[in-house]
Design goal:
The chain has 415 residues and is α+β, with helices and mostly antiparallel strands. Helices cover 34% and strands 27% of the residues. It folds into 2 domains: 228 residues, Gcn5-related N-acetyltransferase (GNAT) (Aminopeptidase, 3-Layer(aba) Sandwich); 178 residues, Aminopeptidase, CATH 3.40.630.30.
Length: 415
């Protein structure tokens, strides 16, 4: 275990941190501690993950499933005061371009990242952030060359992120959300409600004409895992149809999601629940659409989705499934249905909010200092390509030819 102190009486470099009368806990009061054992900090980790401000992707079970599926080299950074943990950054070390990058577990399969910060932490000033970055460098420079915290919204659920002034560049992928109300009709009123109800009735009639359907969300372990395997096959077929790489075939990814399926629900909270449209009648048992939802508190995230249009494609089973999941989320008291990162037409058709996320790149060594402008340049290039339809189509075709290495594609961006 390593530690590095950031204290208001300690001089770090040429900066002396000021005293403060603010009753909130200051970042400068914390000691940075790192460990590679998640279980050693599980109790404090679970306490912090329960706060609304913190993303479910930094939850203990999510990160543990990822680490075990990938056998990651972990470094869990904690900010500690008087034996109490006030923040946690769960990182893994990834070799890249002859350097070592410390990044949040989950990589591009995370739809929103925040780290884990206690509500008692006050917003840091510029001097505190400068010294935090320096202390992080001292704590991790023997393990990594650069820290990359990606897909972080500067403000989330009305709370400004403590590290937002350190943001380096806007991520090339935005995320999309639909606010929910207890009354589903009030939720639809944000959109073109009349048109949506008409479309839903039309979809339902078309499927009823071939025997009908069931909206299922299995709870039996064997059924859950079997449905997840159907999703992997269905998604792979869909991506190949469009000449796109299958990111779910990358090493460890399917194992990761299967592990999430085994995490028990806690009330309505769950790291992963599968929903599907299952046909009845002459096509009994056929799965026409699948989606994976995560929930923490009142926040629901769609992690992935797929469709099989070999039967009754005119009924748009994927669109029908989203209607049913959103309606259920309203009944169950959720306040946000998050479609995740990646700009897709169906997301814009459902969502009234678009969230810009940012990446924080903190070099720890000379290699990291060289990599930082390179990675920022890559992000700028990706953003420019995504804004140009023709360039994006060319990039997708190029990605499909290098499919085994398509690790940079977000799961939700590969629809």
């Amino acid at each position: 275990m390593q530690q590095q102190k950031i204290h208001h009486e300690e001089q770090i470099g040429n900066v002396v941190l000021p005293e403060t009368d603010d009753p909130s806990i200051r970042l400068c009061e914390l000691t940075l501690v790192s460990t590679d054992d998640p279980r050693s900090v599980e109790a404090e980790w679970r306490r912090l993950e329960g706060l609304t401000r913190n993303s479910l992707h930094q939850g203990f079970d999510w990160c543990l499933a990822w680490a075990r599926a990938h056998r990651s080299e972990l470094v869990i950074v904690q900010g500690v005061l008087d034996g109490r943990t006030l923040f946690i950054l769960p990182l893994e070390i990834i070799p890249e371009r002859r350097a070592r990058i410390a990044r949040l577990l989950g990589h591009r399969f995370n739809n929103i990242n925040t780290g884990l910060f206690d509500a008692e932490l006050a917003d840091p000033d510029a001097e505190e952030l400068q010294n935090f970055a320096y202390a992080l460098k001292l704590a991790l420079s023997d393990k990594a060359d650069l820290v990359l915290l990606d897909n972080i919204p500067l403000v989330w659920r009305g709370i400004r992120h403590p590290l937002s002034p350190l943001a380096s560049i806007a991520n090339q992928n935005h995320s999309f959300q639909l606010p929910l109300f207890p009354n589903f009709e009030a939720t639809l009123a944000q959109l073109n409600a009349k048109s949506r109800r008409k479309k839903f009735r039309s979809q339902s009639r078309k499927i009823e004409a071939i025997g009908g359907y069931d909206h299922i969300a299995p709870t039996d372990p064997a059924e859950k895992h079997a449905l997840l395997d159907i999703f992997f096959r269905q998604k792979g077929d869909r991506l190949r149809l469009f000449g796109l790489p299958d990111v779910f075939q990358l090493p460890g990814i399917q194992d990761f999601f299967h592990r999430l399926m085994d995490v028990p629900t806690n009330g309505t909270d769950t790291p992963l629940t599968l929903h599907a449209i299952r046909l009845r009648g002459e096509h009994e048992g056929h799965i026409a659409a699948i989606a994976g939802l995560s929930r923490k508190g009142d926040h629901v995230i769609c992690q992935f989705s797929s469709i099989d249009e070999t039967i009754c494609p005119e009924a748009s089973p994927g669109e029908l499934l989203f209607w049913l999941m959103i309606e259920q989320s309203c009944r169950e008291g959720a306040s946000v249905f998050d479609f995740g990162v990646g700009d897709q037409p169906y997301k814009r058709n459902w969502c009234t909010q678009e969230t810009v996320q940012y990446d924080i790149l903190l070099p720890l060594t000379w290699k990291g200092s060289l990599m930082r402008p390179l990675l920022i340049g890559v992000t700028k290039a990706k953003a420019a390509i995504k804004r140009n339809r023709h360039l994006y189509a060319m990039a997708q075709r190029w990605r499909s030819r290098r499919c085994p290495k398509a690790s940079e594609a977000p799961a939700s961006d590969a629809e």
